[in-house]
């Protein structure tokens, strides 16, 4: 059936049996493509029927369907003319793993980070109303996005912004699946039925026409109705915010979903449809381990086993080990994450120290202020969040942590480019954070140095940021005590006389390869592991700049990063010249493999070595 669907219009011609067959085809396609390319499996298996129902009832791209956390949009892509392109998912120059206006007219709004759909869709609805247009606007919120502060801010504005608006809550929390059943189905049929709503309006008008006490009686009847619904049906909070609540309903019952979507088109009130879905639906190993298969690398589609055995340590796992070691020695250490306990490496910490671990959900701003409160009352919080997501809380890092000089340790995973593309690259945070007062910024070359930095950050007693990439790393040696790091001092890896290469963090491995290529031309290379972005080792930099040219390599934007720091220090002092390698702040870095991105952006060791040779005349 999937082969017959080239646009959402084709769905309207299908029978219920054909739609069910289409759902099966889509699940097979998801498994086939994601098992080869990696991607978000469980969320998309859970949203198959909901996606088909949405596109069957509404008319994209005329109707605007905005998806929160774009990783639940794979089925949407398959239904909107991209089934062939979808086979290139997450590959170099292939289909994005998120939603992008540049990819399709059906992607009304780019989606990568959580919590944005309601606010953006309200903007669409307000513009539509003011232009006198009649199309529908639907915000599909899922995977915990409703926890997000901006989503709640958007909910607060719905009733004052428009009367024609639909929110679909794709709720895959297993704890409320028991609410789906005959009673909920009956109540939904009753309260969404046109006959019921017409009768309700008629009765209200009759009651209001009674002289003297009609308005008071109408209010009492309304209170009785709402009280009954609060007992029998969840969602009173939404109705208090001025929206009509429908649910909870079975998010895998396509025909019921389509019926409800068709009915609510006539509502003269914002409406929220609460659909219960099952993450990993239709795939046993994804149903059993939805968190593992939320986002995954390539795997065996029959068993779920990883196609490539992971035999190496990562910076994330090194951080997790180091955090546990620090917590064992210091009872005041607590850890906080924002819905990323496994991704950040804190799963073992949560297991070992359950009363000292806090997962606040998709609420990075709250995580930061919560940490500030903990630090103000004598605790030592470690906040572990992906670098790209930490950018959402910069205001709170400044106002609530830095200005009060509170000893919060921020550990930023995925610092640098990643496969997922521009919404997830952790390359801009450094330029933001390093200009804040009272904060130190460190970046380790490997897992051992990460452990040393974490212990040093604890002793520092001021705000500290430790950044590290999604990459393999030698694990820390838990048998030896952490080495003391001289605060603010760079590490001279080896000395040379022709050029000095300063690298940041894991880019030391790139610098080593560049040095090896240059040494084949008889170039003597000095290598420096920067380690500290703030405070910066200006003395070593100035000393080397007086003797030889310099090059810098970083997995960050040069503007505001290591390159700009070096330029600022040497503006009146450099003699031999400087060349920088990193990312251009004005260039949107695409998605794809790390190797492919580096090739496309000319950031491979061979190209770096060639540019250095040309710049400084090394033959």
Task: Briefly characterize the structure.
This protein is α/β, with parallel strands linked by helices and 619 residues long. The protein is 41% helix and 14% strand.
Radius of gyration: 28 Å
What name does the CATH topology of the largest domain carry? Rossmann fold
Return the domain count.
Answer: 3
**Shape category:** globular
From the structure above, extract its key features.
619 residues; 3 domains; 25 helices; alpha/beta; five-stranded parallel beta sheet; 41% helix; Rossmann fold; 17 strands
Characterize the structure shown.
Helix 14 runs parallel beside helix 20 (447-460) and helix 21 packs across helix 25 (605-616). It is built from 25 helices and 17 strands. It is globular. It folds into 3 domains: 2-192 and 235-285, Thiamin diphosphate (ThDP)-binding fold, Pyr/PP domains (Rossmann fold, 3-Layer(aba) Sandwich); 315-467, Thiamin diphosphate (ThDP)-binding fold, Pyr/PP domains (Rossmann fold, 3-Layer(aba) Sandwich); 491-616, 3-Layer(aba) Sandwich (Rossmann fold), CATH 3.40.50. With 619 residues, the protein is α/β, with parallel strands linked by helices.
């Amino acid at each position: 059936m999937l082969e017959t669907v080239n646009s959402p219009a084709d769905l309207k011609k299908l029978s219920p049996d054909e739609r069910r067959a289409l759902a099966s085809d889509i699940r097979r396609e998801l498994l086939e493509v994601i098992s080869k390319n990696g991607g978000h499996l469980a969320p998309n298996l859970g949203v198959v029927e909901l996606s088909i129902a949405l596109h069957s009832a509404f008319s994209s791209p005329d109707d605007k369907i905005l998806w929160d956390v774009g990783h639940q949009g794979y089925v949407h892509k398959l239904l909107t003319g991209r089934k062939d392109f979808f086979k290139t998912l997450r590959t170099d120059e292939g289909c994005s793993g998120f939603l992008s206006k540049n990819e399709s007219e059906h992607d009304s709004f780019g989606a990568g980070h959580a919590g944005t759909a309601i606010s953006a869709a309200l903007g669409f609805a307000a513009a539509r109303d003011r232009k006198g247009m009649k199309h529908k606007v639907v915000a599909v919120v899922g995977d915990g996005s409703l926890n997000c502060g901006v989503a709640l801010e958007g909910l607060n504005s719905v009733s004052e912004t428009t009367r024609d608006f639909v929110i679909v809550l794709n709720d895959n929390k297993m704890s409320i699946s028991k609410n789906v059943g005959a009673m909920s189905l009956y109540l939904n049929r009753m309260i969404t039925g046109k006959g019921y709503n017409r009768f309700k309006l008629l009765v209200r008008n009759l009651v209001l026409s009674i002289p003297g006490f009609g308005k008071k009686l109408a209010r009492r009847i309304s209170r009785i109705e709402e009280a009954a619904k609060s007992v029998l049906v969840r969602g009173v909070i939404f109705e208090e915010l001025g929206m009509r609540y429908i649910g909870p309903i079975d998010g895998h019952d396509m025909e019921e979903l389509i019926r409800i979507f068709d009915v609510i088109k006539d509502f003269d009130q914002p409406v929220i449809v609460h659909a219960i879905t099952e993450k990993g639906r239709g795939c046993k190993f994804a149903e059993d381990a939805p968190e593992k298969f939320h986002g995954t690398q390539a795997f065996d589609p029959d068993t779920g086993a990883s196609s490539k055995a992971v035999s190496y340590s990562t910076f994330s796992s090194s951080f997790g080990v180091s955090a546990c070691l620090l917590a064992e020695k210091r009872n005041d250490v607590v850890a906080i994450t924002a819905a990323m306990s496994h991704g950040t490496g804190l799963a073992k910490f949560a297991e070992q120290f359950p009363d000292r671990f806090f997962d606040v959900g998709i609420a990075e701003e709250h995580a930061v202020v919560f940490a500030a409160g903990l630090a103000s009352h004598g605790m030592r919080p470690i906040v572990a969040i992906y670098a790209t997501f930490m950018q959402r809380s910069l205001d709170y890092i400044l106002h609530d942590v830095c200005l009060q000089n509170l000893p919060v340790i921020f550990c930023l995973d995925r610092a640098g480019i990643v496969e997922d593309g521009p919404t997830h690259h952790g390359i801009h945070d450094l330029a933001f954070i390093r200009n804040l007062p009272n904060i130190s910024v460190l970046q380790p070359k490997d897992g051992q140095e990460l452990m040393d930095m974490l212990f040093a950050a604890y002793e520092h007693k001021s705000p500290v940021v430790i950044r590290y990439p999604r990459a393999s790393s030698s694990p820390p040696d838990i048998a030896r005590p952490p080495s003391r790091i001289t605060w603010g001092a760079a590490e001279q890896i080896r000395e040379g006389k022709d050029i000095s290469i300063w690298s940041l963090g894991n880019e030391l491995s790139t610098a080593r390869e560049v040095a090896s290529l240059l040494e084949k031309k008889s170039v003597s290379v000095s290598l420096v592991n920067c380690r500290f972005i703030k405070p910066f080792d200006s003395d070593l930099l100035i000393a080397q700049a007086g003797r030889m040219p310099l090059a810098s390599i970083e997995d960050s934007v040069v503007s505001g990063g290591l390159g700009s720091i070096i330029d600022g220090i040497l503006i009146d002092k450099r003699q031999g010249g400087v060349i920088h390698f990193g990312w251009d702040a004005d260039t949107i870095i695409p998605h794809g493999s790390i190797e492919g991105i580096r090739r496309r952006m000319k950031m491979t060791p061979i190209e770096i070595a060639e540019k250095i040779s040309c710049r400084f005349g090394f033959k």
